[in-house]
Design a protein that fits this description.
- This protein is mainly α and about 300 residues long.
- The chain has two domains: about 140 residues; about 120 residues, no CATH class.
- The chain is about 60% helix and about 5% strand.
- The strands form two sheets. Strands 1-4 form a two-stranded antiparallel ribbon. Strands 2-3 form a two-stranded antiparallel sheet.
- A hairpin with a 2-residue loop joins strand 2 and strand 3.
- Helix 2 runs antiparallel to helix 13, helix 3 runs antiparallel to helix 4 and helix 4 runs antiparallel to helix 5.
- It is globular, with a radius of gyration of 21 Å.
- About 25% of the residues are buried.
């Protein structure tokens, strides 16, 4: 019975629908920007900066064909590869607009992982996080507000004379909280995994930061200020501490919003020191999952 009560405490109740819509829009926008070739001049894109794990800052814009499938025989030809890329773009637009949002999120995750499986050099940790987020969003009521379908429904109801008030979904409508709890668990796992991975003497004494600096990965005026004021070892320890402190603050409602602000500042600082692609933006959007702190009324 204690386990049942604990599960009910975690997953029963409601939350306002705006949080799901905000995460959907933010995730879809990041997906489009992250995979959009026409934004290459200011966005790091897959295959354009990293090839076989090595950084080449002068890499040509053409996407290399590495033909190294994760699953034997799954290598896609040129036509199939392009078709999946076009389908991925279409699904991300549909997700952004909220057209069959849950189905679009699920299919987008499936198509994206298929492209991963067809070429292992497409894999990056931040893209894996992005695609996992899409899979979780497919379980959530992400199209209940701020969606094209919702807007069309309101127009139809008004045209039929029922009035806007007859629309079943609004930004402040109550929606089940259990999908949000799963998204929160994903966020906590990312921070905890990052923190645990840094519990190593080589990292904590600053050797890893020195190595990244020699590779010109760590650079910029903000990094130079941190290095000169605190030193490699202190910066390493503070970054590890932050990756444990942020999730700890997110767990408790009393410190949740302060932890969100701290997390945003943490990711802004990382992005100012090194190229982390869309990771900082992704985590910033996912932190929205913790913003609602109001008491949850049980559904039953």
């Amino acid at each position: 019975m204690k386990l049942t009560r604990a599960i009910d405490w975690l997953f029963e109740g409601t939350v306002k629908s705006w949080v799901y819509s905000a995460i959907r829009i933010g995730t879809a926008a990041i997906f489009l920007v992250r995979h959009a070739d026409w934004l290459r001049s200011w966005v790091y894109l897959e295959h354009h900066r990293f090839v076989r794990g090595l950084m080449f800052l002068g890499a040509p814009p053409a996407e290399p064909r590495l033909n190294s499938p994760l699953i034997a025989g799954l290598s896609l030809g040129e036509t199939a590869n392009n078709a999946f890329v076009y389908l991925r773009t279409l699904l991300s637009v549909l997700l952004l607009l909220g057209v069959r949002a849950r189905l679009s999120a699920g299919l987008l995750a499936l198509v994206s992982y298929t492209l991963f499986a067809a070429d292992r050099y497409r894999y990056y940790h931040h893209l894996h996080l992005l695609y996992v987020t899409l899979a979780w969003l497919a379980l959530a009521p992400i199209g209940s507000s701020l969606s094209l379908e919702h807007a069309v429904g309101r127009l139809v109801q008004r045209w039929r004379g029922h009035g806007v008030a007859a629309s079943p979904s609004t930004l402040l409508a109550d929606t089940p909280i259990w999908p949000l709890q799963l998204i929160r668990a994903l966020v906590l796992s990312v921070y905890l995994a990052a923190g645990v991975s840094k519990l190593d003497a080589t990292f904590l004494n600053g050797d890893a930061l020195r190595h990244l600096e020699r590779l010109f990965v760590l650079k910029g005026p903000f990094w130079g200020l941190l290095r000169d004021v605190a030193g490699y070892g202190v910066v390493a320890k503070l970054s590890c501490l932050a990756e444990f402190a942020v999730p700890l603050g997110l767990v408790f409602p009393a410190t949740r919003r302060a932890a969100i602000v701290g997390g945003l500042a943490f990711h802004a600082g990382i992005s100012a020191c090194m190229p982390v692609y869309s990771f900082g933006a992704q985590m910033s959007v996912l932190l929205l999952a913790f913003w609602p702190t109001e008491p949850r009324a049980p559904r039953h």
